[in-house]
């Protein structure tokens, strides 16, 4: 009898354990299957809303509904103001709960009333009134201001000493809604008027615009857009998949000249896209509104970001708050930009191919990897069997070349996803690279295996010299080429690279690269003597 009872109890325990395990798994699977379907069904509703709704569910982001106060199984959250709503309550939330107003009139001294959102307060927050912890209570017991991020207990809200919001820690980078309200009322839009309006924002006001490419690298762009919309005025945050940088940067023309910093979230290609848009601003006579540019690397190579001290890639290891602090502390440097002109042999009367270069130009094995020519190389073993470069001139002087398969022309210190190409390894004294000296570093490689050895610090490239002018002539083979990671196949041609302009960039002096050699980092950093206005001096680098 006792054995039968024990056996029954064991089976009962096993049954409940199985149920306890299977139920969450089944709910998770159900939510996973439903998520794409629900996103499509709610898309039209989200598009018509004044909130920046994004789909969420119990397992994606556990939250409480700001309308009915119940846990959200399937619903949405606004990445601007932080309001959360169950699926059945979304339309009602649209009617009764306001989002961040990007433009509104201030109350006094450039400040306005707190805009409180109830519930879903971040964990480990602290009440501004009683200084005790917030965010550790169930349901909707605490409040958060959508502008200054101040948190307060429900019971402490009525006794809060100051009802006016000062925009919090990041007031110096936020575009206040009252500033845009005043700009909209101006009869004469002039830079002097913007400076007068900015006086109420404080002497250290340096608004930051965020331009994110959601297609770059590790697909963190979408997450960053939401996090920065929460911290900043949503009007400052741009999705480059929806609006090109040329249009996003026009906001700079409504802000005090020389005050704006642009944070580009993307790869080196995205940075080049933004810098091209800034060049267009110069052509329009908007030089005084040119912003300083900094990078949050989301791409795959990120050599430009690495060269400017911002690291080889961002995967959320530091908070967006710390990212903004780093941007404010960064130093201003000038970076050379180059124009690459490709004229195909026998087509001198056609319009040449013209590209902008920030990082490097290469022809040969390095570009082959970018263009994914591996299958072609297997079919054509003689593709690199002979010298492809007829002639190389540095500053007008011809250079005697060994039997090279490729040439790499660098403007920055890093190449190939984190390799310091010019300085290399060993004790040979080579001048350090700089981004602001108007010089290009030219090296050669023997083949793809040599490239691989260089990337793992087992070999050095063939250093051909530093120059203002480079002239390169290619043979009749059809060769892979690349500029800043953008590859193409090119026949016999003459390539001319000329100094285009200088871009004002921000350099992060703290070491955030994968290179542990601090001396190499210091070598890359331009000195203060070079920090002034951008130069329009035309220097020529010719690759023929």
From TrEMBL:
Residues 511-544 are annotated as: Disordered. Residues 533-544 have a biased composition (Polar residues). Residues 50-99, 113-165 form the Phorbol-ester/DAG-type domain. The lineage of its organism: Eukaryota, Metazoa, Chordata, Craniata, Vertebrata. Residues 513-526 have a biased composition (Acidic residues). Belongs to the eukaryotic diacylglycerol kinase family. GO terms for cellular component: membrane. This is Diacylglycerol kinase. The gene is LOC107553311. Keywords: ATP-binding, Kinase, Lipid metabolism, Membrane, Metal-binding, Nucleotide-binding, Repeat, Transferase, Transmembrane, Transmembrane helix, Zinc, Zinc-finger. Its EC number is 2.7.1.107. One of its GO terms (molecular function) is ATP binding. Residues 203-344 form the DAGKc domain. It catalyses: 1,2-di-(9Z-octadecenoyl)-sn-glycerol + ATP = 1,2-di-(9Z-octadecenoyl)-sn-glycero-3-phosphate + ADP + H(+); a 1,2-diacyl-sn-glycerol + ATP = a 1,2-diacyl-sn-glycero-3-phosphate + ADP + H(+). GO terms for biological process: glycerolipid metabolic process; phospholipase C-activating G protein-coupled receptor signaling pathway. It comes from Sinocyclocheilus grahami (Dianchi golden-line fish). It is an enzyme of class 2 (transferase). The chain crosses the membrane at residues 13-33. Pathway: Glycerolipid metabolism; Lipid metabolism; glycerolipid metabolism. InterPro entries: ATP-NAD_kinase_N (IPR017438), C1-like_sf (IPR046349), DGK (IPR037607), Diacylglycerol_kin_accessory (IPR000756), Diacylglycerol_kinase_cat_dom (IPR001206), NAD/diacylglycerol_kinase_sf (IPR016064), PKC_DAG/PE (IPR002219).
């Amino acid at each position: 009898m006792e054995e039968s009872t024990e056996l029954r109890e064991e089976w009962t325990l096993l049954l409940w354990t199985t149920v306890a395990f299977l139920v969450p798994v089944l709910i998770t699977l159900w939510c996973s299957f439903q998520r794409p379907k629900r996103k499509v069904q709610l898309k039209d509703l989200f598009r018509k809303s004044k909130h920046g709704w994004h789909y969420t569910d119990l397992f994606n982001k556990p939250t409480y509904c700001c309308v009915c106060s119940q846990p959200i199984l399937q619903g949405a959250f606004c990445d601007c103001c932080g309001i959360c709503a169950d699926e059945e309550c979304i339309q009602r939330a649209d009617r009764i709960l306001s989002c961040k107003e990007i433009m509104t009139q201030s109350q006094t001294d450039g400040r306005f009333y707190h805009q409180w959102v109830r519930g879903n307060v971040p964990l480990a927050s602290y009440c501004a009134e009683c200084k005790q912890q917030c965010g550790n209570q169930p349901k909707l017991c605490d409040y958060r201001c959508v502008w200054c991020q101040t948190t307060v207990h429900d019971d402490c809200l009525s006794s809060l000493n100051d009802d006016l919001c000062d925009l919090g820690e990041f007031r110096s980078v936020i575009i206040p809604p009252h500033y845009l309200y005043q700009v909209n009322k101006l009869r004469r839009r002039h830079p002097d008027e913007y400076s007068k309006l900015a006086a109420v924002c404080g002497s250290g006001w340096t608004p930051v615009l965020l331009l994110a490419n959601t297609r770059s690298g590790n697909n963190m762009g979408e997450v960053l857009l939401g996090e920065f919309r929460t911290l900043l005025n949503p009007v400052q945050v741009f999705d480059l998949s929806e609006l090109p940088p040329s249009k996003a940067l026009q906001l700079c023309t409504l802000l005090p000249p020389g005050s704006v910093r642009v944070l580009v979230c993307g790869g080196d290609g995205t940075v080049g896209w933004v810098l091209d848009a800034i060049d267009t601003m110069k052509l329009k006579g908007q030089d005084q509104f040119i912003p300083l540019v900094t990078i949050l690397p989301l791409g795959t190579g990120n050599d430009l970001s690495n060269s400017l001290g911002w690291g080889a890639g961002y995967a959320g290891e530091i908070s967006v708050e710390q990212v903004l602090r780093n941007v404010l502390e960064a130093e201003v440097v000038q970076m050379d930009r180059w124009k690459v002109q490709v004229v195909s042999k026998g087509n001198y009367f056609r319009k040449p191919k013209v590209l902008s270069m920030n990082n490097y130009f290469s022809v040969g094995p390095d570009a082959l990897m970018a263009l994914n020519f591996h299958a072609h190389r297997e079919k054509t073993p003689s593709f690199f069997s002979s010298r492809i470069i007829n002639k190389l001139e540095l500053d007008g002087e011809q250079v005697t070349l060994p039997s090279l398969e490729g040439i790499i022309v660098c403007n920055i210190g890093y190449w190939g996803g984190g390799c310091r190409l010019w300085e290399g390894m060993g004790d040979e004294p080579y001048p350090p690279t700089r981004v602001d000296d108007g010089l290009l570093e030219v090296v050669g490689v023997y083949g793809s295996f040599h490239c691989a050895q260089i990337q793992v610090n087992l070999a050095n490239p063939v250093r051909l010299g530093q120059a203002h002018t480079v002239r390169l002539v290619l043979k009749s083979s059809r060769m892979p080429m690349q500029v800043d990671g953008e590859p193409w196949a090119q026949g016999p041609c003459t390539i001319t690279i000329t100094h285009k302009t200088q871009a004002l960039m921000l350099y992060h002096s703290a070491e955030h690269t994968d290179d542990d050699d601090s001396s190499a980092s210091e070598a890359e950093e331009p000195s203060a003597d070079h920090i002034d206005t951008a130069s329009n001096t035309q220097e020529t680098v010719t690759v023929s």
